Amino acid sequence: MLKMMTGSLPTSTSLFLRPFTTSLSGKNLGVSISSVMANSGEPKESFGFLINKPYNPPSWALHLHPIPSQIFSLAHLPTPIHRWNLPNLPKSIDLWIKRDDLSGMQLSGNKVRKLEFLMAEAISHGADCIITIGGIQSNHCRATAVAAKYLNLDCYLILRTSKILVDKDPGLTGNLLVERLVGAHVELVSKEEYSKFGSQALTNLLKERLISQGRKPYVIPVGGSNSLGTWGYIEGIREIEEQLHIAPSMAFEDIVVACGSGGTLAGLSLGSWLSKMKAKVHGFSVCDDPDYFYNYVQDLLDGMHAGVSSRDIVDIQDSKGLGYAMNTTEELEFVKEVAAATGVVLDPVYSGKAAFQMLKDMSDNPAKWEGRKVLFIHTGGLLGLYDKNEQIAPTMANWRRMDIAESVPTKEGIGKMF
């Protein structure tokens, strides 16, 4: 077995962090940090990917503080924008979609924009491993595990699961498959432990353990949502502005996005407010309640010295339904209907719920939306559908055994590849 560049690590246990580490340990065969960086911040030969380079903010964001000094190019940008003819969309509404689900492959979704700033800081701090935390099917944790491996860093994931499953192998469904394939170290906690101790205490506990082993960990909060990560969607607004240059007559009046940890919502709302776009941002929360997110976004804005109230720049509505990562049959049927009608596959945890509630609000409050140009941000999360296969299977009736009449002529030698 190949020895990892950072050295082999002992497996340790604690009272409520239960490690599940993939058995495959190997040297990163991708691009190492040293090979993608030079003294100038960019190598002599570069294709613009996996590059740590100086960050230059938009002119309208220069007053924010602190301004990141570096950014690591991890995403495939710009992501496309196209018209989105949702089923039952009111005819007076001009709806478009920005496909941040196409920001990469294993790194797809909104999380990669935040990670471009967070990973750059981790590298600048001399980190040799990354710690983050989330739900058992966290898109952020999957994206972080892949980004860390791209940069030759170890990754430690604290994943929240049920009390019944916390002492069992978590399996290989959805995001877990990718995380474990890339060698992430998975540590399980129960929902009760997560609620009792909180994410910060849990990540600090793991951080202290790794430091005692001689490691240099860098901690990324839930969803990558802190003031530094918020810059990911300030950049996202600049990207939208640049895309609109080719269609100067187009101006989005509303931006809609799912809200799960608050960082994406904070970046979009602040960026839209400061830039010439001035679109009204609508966040549909898939966990907690609107008041929680107004306060959380405010904390992020204050951390950037933005000098603005969250309630003045964003509208937040509750769309969690049965609860975080829990779906009604109606919500899953909506995801299926949208895919069949438009080819766009929504995830069931974030964008699926946000789009479902957006359409409901458009129907219930037509005066609020009538005649508006609306941009929906698809934040990714396709792998989350794999965790819903049993629940969604009964709605999938589009198959049959092919009828082949006896009169159809046969020919010897056909199909030998089978």
From TrEMBL:
Domain Tryptophan synthase beta chain-like PALP: start-end pairs: 74-380
Enzyme class: lyase
Principal location listed in the UniProt entry: mitochondrion
UniProt cross-references to InterPro entries, sorted A to Z: ACCD_DCysDesulf, D-Cys_desShydrase, TrpB-like_PALP, TrpB-like_PALP_sf
Subcellular location as annotated: Mitochondrion
Named cofactor requirement(s): pyridoxal 5'-phosphate
Name of the protein: D-cysteine desulfhydrase
Source organism of the structure: Aquilegia coerulea (Rocky mountain columbine)
Lineage, broadest ranks: Eukaryota, Viridiplantae, Streptophyta, Embryophyta, Tracheophyta
